[in-house]
Design brief:
Blueprint lengths: L2 H11 L12 E7 L4 E10 L2 E10 L2 H14 L4 H5 L3 H8 L4 H22 L6 H4 L2
Helix pairs in contact: 1-2, 2-5
Length: 132
């Protein structure tokens, strides 16, 4: 097993940032009907930056590990930085290419985070986020 697969398993078995933020600035729920992945992200945003990020839900190893790794990664990032984050950056972060069959699993948390940011900013969701 390669080191990236081991990290996916580790984040799945011992997820970081699992839980809720009681007074979150924004939260957003996403569901992947293909795999049954179900996630809600909670963001605490202050001064244009993500101060805290958590997620709650259940799903396959790839979706839960991606959520764990992504919530670690976005803490301290500005909303402008997160708006630029896409599939390429997520795949680099998780260290594996999930392939077309599992891409929706891997990107579910990214989609939820980006939609939460649009909601927080009272903006329309952009086309690239809709396609995740």
């Amino acid at each position: 097993m390669n080191i990236y697969a081991e990290e996916i398993i580790s984040h799945y078995e011992h997820p970081h940032n699992k839980g809720k933020i009681a007074n979150a600035s924004v939260d957003f729920h996403e569901y992947n009907p293909t795999c049954g992945d179900d996630i809600t992200v909670y963001l605490d945003i202050r001064d244009g930056k993500v101060r805290d990020a958590k997620f709650d839900g259940q799903g396959c190893a790839i979706s839960m590990a991606s959520a764990s790794m992504l919530t670690d990664e976005i803490k301290g990032k500005s909303m402008a930085e997160l708006e630029k984050t896409g599939v390429k950056e997520l795949i680099e972060l998780i260290g594996i290419d999930p392939g077309p069959a599992r891409l929706k699993c891997a990107t579910l948390s990214l989609k939820a985070i980006k939609k939460a940011l649009f909601l927080y900013q009272h903006k329309e969701v952009d086309d690239s986020t809709k396609e995740l």
